Amino acid sequence: MIKFKLKPLNINYGKRYKSVLSSNEIRRRFIDYFVKENDHTYIKSSPVVPYNDPTIAFVNAGMCQFKTVLLGQRTLAANRVANSQKCIRVGGKHNDLDVVGSDGYHHSFFEMLGNWSFGHYGKAEACRLAWNLLTSPPYNIPTEQLYCTVFNGDKTLNVEADNETLQIWKHIGVNDDHIVMNGANDNFWEMGETGPCGPCTEIHIDYPPSGGKNLIELWNIVFIQYSRERNTMHKLPNYFIDTGMGLERLTMVLQDKTSTYDTDLFSSIFNIIFNACRISKYTGLFDGTSLDTYYRVLADHGRMITIALSDNMLPSQNHKLRRLIRKSFILAETNFKIHPGYTLMCDIANEVSNNLGHVKHLIKHEYTIFNKLRMSVLKDWKMVVEECPMLNSFNPYEECTGFVPACNYLIKHKNMSSIPAFTLYDTFGLEKKTIGRLSQVMGRPVSWNELDDKLKKLQTKTTENIKRKSNNYMIGNIPKTDDSFKYEVIRHSNESYLLPIVTAKLLAIVDTNGNIVTEPDIKQQGDTVSLVLDKTSFYCKAGGQQNDIGIVKTNNGLVFDVTDVEKIEESGVVLHHIKSRDWPILLSEKELHVQVDSNYRLGLMRAHSSVHILNSVLNSYLVVTTQLSSCVKKDFMLFTFALFGQKFSPEDALTIEDKVNSIIQSAVSVKRTTVTSNDLNQINVTLLPGEVYPDEVYLIDMYSNVDDMYISREACCGTHIQNTLDVIDFCIVQYKCLSNECTIKAVTGPRCTDARVFGQQLMDKSNSFEDLVKSTNLSNISPTKVHLLMDSKNQLKSEMKNISQNYIPLKVQIQINKKIFSTERKIQKLIKEKKMQILGDAVQTLCKNSYAVGYVECDVTYLDDNCYDFENVIHVCGEIPCLFLAYNKEHIHVYLRIPKEQPENIKWLNDFWEKFDIKPITFKNKIQFKATEFKVKHVDKYMALKLINKVVQDVKKNYFSQL
User: Fold this and answer.
1) pLDDT in tens, 896-937
2) How far apart are CA 226 and CA 846, in angstroms?
3) Pairing mode, strands 109-118 and 94-95
4) Are 609 and 713 in contact, with CB atoms under 8 Å apart?
5) CB atoms within 10 A of CB 339
6) Is the peptide bond before 199 cis (omega within 30 degrees of 0)?
7) Which end of the chain is more exposed for a tag (fewer CB within 10 A), N or C?
8) Which of 711, 717, 712 has its CA nearest to residue 693?
């Protein structure tokens, strides 16, 4: 491929074409040309989240969704297709991120127009199709501006020059001086070090016309005709055509623009940015210092972020995406003065793709997380920069959460000879690129060898663990168990289910040490063994669903309980665990009859189908959410989902419960279909973000004939009922929400009835408790009745806490908790009023004409809070000086009120403080009085009462008697 550096171009803007095509028209023309005029099948772009390729974080080329076809792992029904694939390149081999905005053609997101032939047509047809499209209306690119490159052969690869393509171009009419022969570096395509590969030919445009000096690659046509092994290269029996042409670059040429950023793909985004900031319009300068550079970066990143989020890529699962979002926030706030920065990003998202409410919500949520991080690390970062000023070139808010702690670590260990790459990578989560930058900025070498060695050891250890797990079972060359029978279920008209009995060959018996048993030594092997069969109907634990239980039976009728089943992933062999001292008799058996417990399986199916219904309802109820985890047991499910900053109350959960039950009662059919992983993007289906799906994928479809729509369509390997009616009932029994996620526990089927019965029992108890409280008033409340109320309340609370075994509906829990809360408040109010009544009566007896002084004896039953609230009962004495002392729970309580004009430094007051061995206390100014209230520790009641009596007598004699 010809390498070039595109600079801003000086173009004569006299239109070379009859009319300027919009980017939408250019894309539509490409698709129509191949699909309507040349019999190709249109396959829409796959999401930028790769769901069948764990080797890449983003779809970065048009070939990604056809990779398994190119590898020969599967075939497509269509043998020639066309599409426009969304691509993101922000890392790895194809990383354009660092130069985005600095030139006129690099992007983090772009569209790749492409056509494909899977063994249908060859080089001549591929070249002809491409040439005709470019040179015919409405593209109308002059042929004298087009150049072609051809592979010139490579001796090291032992591949000859592609003379066939050379002659094809000449036959089409390309002049010799417009054909360039290149070596393998430019015109030989490889998927990897091994695998499919082949020569490619490219169409370039001399843009602007310069006699061949300004060649820009438009279209790359790859002929995948070889397969490369370690040391050999052999021809494929059928070769493929794989072509790609960047929409952005083609649009630039057809719209006569100086760069891809000047096209209509970006102009509207620039207008959005300007209307928000009103600083200066985009002018297209490439001086590296103007605001135009930031215009390009923000517009590019805004497109990429919007597409990634709309394709259900979550920032929490992709650090590169989160980093770009944060970089965009900073750009918006720092360079365009937009606060908060997410508002501008939401405007850009709305321009890129309308009706993306969930995208804008995610952007706002990410800003909340980003702002919290910014506030939390600000102080630490200032200290870091003070200690090491050269780190100021970093923006800590763009980096991962562990960046600032990592810098602190390096500063504290500044005497280390080199930067510990493995520690920064493994402990603090820094990328290799960031570690390299830290090395350059701090002027310290990096121990890359240590990082590589330790990573290899970790990989080796992981591989060994996998091998060790597999080697636990010495099952040799026993073939994979055919467990497809687990999906064979018969539904009877009475809505009961039957799982057919499967007759299977017994291939081996394995003991607990993983060895195949050949001798029936019960003393050595014990009574627990595992059976290996050639086929089974048992479901092994997967996708959150628990395994089946059941029996295996001999021809003579001897039954063995299967308590657990386990699949060895490496070999696909299923182990049926049994526990019986009679197992040696099975050594003479050749076949067994496998029977799954239908009732137990039905409970699993009900629960699993309810998970799908719940997930579907949540996705329609919340702005944006995604499943985080699930657990399916017999008539029980646990489901955790993301909230992304949204509120989800218990009342919301009850609304969701009603919606789920409405779907259940709608008698929606549930069907299992099979598609290839590549077909997933052609249909509307719920997928788990970050999940890698196999080539063959099961879909669970819940289709409503009444509404003529899918209620739920989800990729799933679990087992399900065949009609939603068979779930019978759905009842949420527990709800727990944290800041960013929520977990719902629910039961299904007959277990709902048990929950509702138990819930009604507790509701009856709570009603009785409520009636008891309502019948209690100031005239009949007593210490005995208070204890009765407290015991009843505590017992009810205890039963509410211990409902894990006997679940009760969330609705009932909410009602009971509200009753408990309201009755608690009423009890507290009654006790408070009774305390005031008793205390008021006690104070009243001490009131004289001119003062009130004395010991207050009150019913301690009502004083559990160890407090005497004299201030609320002092009104019974009127406007006279008061001194009240009381004893409760090892404390002396004192309330003192004296005339406002009375000086505080007189001798009697000083003596007063001394008697309690405390420092003088400041009085609070009332309207006519100064008052203070305090308590002092005095464990011994006898001595306390003696002191109280002495204080009372002294005050009466030396102060109050004189008033």
Assistant:
1) 998 888 776 667 788 888 899 898 888 888 888 889 999 999
2) 109
3) unpaired
4) no
5) 10
6) no
7) C
8) 717
